[in-house]
Write the structure tokens for this entry.
Amino acid sequence: AMTMLKQMVDEGIIDPNWLAYKKDDFRAAWKQGRFGIMREQNAAFAATSNYAPFDKNFPDGEWIIIDPPTGPKGHASIGPYTAGFRIYAISAKAVKEGKKDKIAELLEWMASDEGYFLLGWGVEGVNYTKDANGVPVAANLPNPDLAFSAPGGQTVTQLRNMVFYNGDIELYARYPKYITATSKKEMSALDVLRVMQTKKWTPAVGSDTLPIPNADLKRFYEQGLSEFITGKRSLTKDSWNKWIDEFKKLGGQEWNDKGVAFAKENNLLN
């Protein structure tokens, strides 16, 4: 994997300035056609305003979502994926004050269709309308300034995160199809997401609970990899093994062993 990454850098597929980039620099660079391969989030790439500069600069340009490279043992992965969870709890104070039943009623109402649409998009006919597929859209409203997607409509959707669960209705409303201004092609950040989801990913649910390395070990790890990729450190089997030995001595082996033990104890590994 390291050999392949170094080859990509050597051949200029990755922008030579990649080490110096911060997020905004990177996103400005791909819109200017600075490199031929990148990793990007679906909406940061394909949402209307985000894709517009690239569309204007390269109306005949096209980005293609590719499969991950396959290693010598047949393994391939875009990267790890995990899952987020939200837990709502009632305080002991609220229970003592006799509010438990009313709070439960509120949560049940929020899970109903009425609560879902009202908290998620506002009042139908005022803040949103529904398209032919029942998806909330900001079209044909008496006052467009009150649309759920407009600044004036934000006040009625402040609790949307309490009802949203990334269902199809939310995703279609969040990532609508549109026609680009210059190239006139159809785009959708949701279509991009769906293609991304068909690729091979490594399940890593719970990995964010694993022990983290100390600052020195993390710095050694990141600096070493960047030096191998950029050629500052020769990438040979001997130099790689020597670096791994140094990593282990600095606490890398202990960190790895603690992570494996934690994962087994918490049923994160089979």
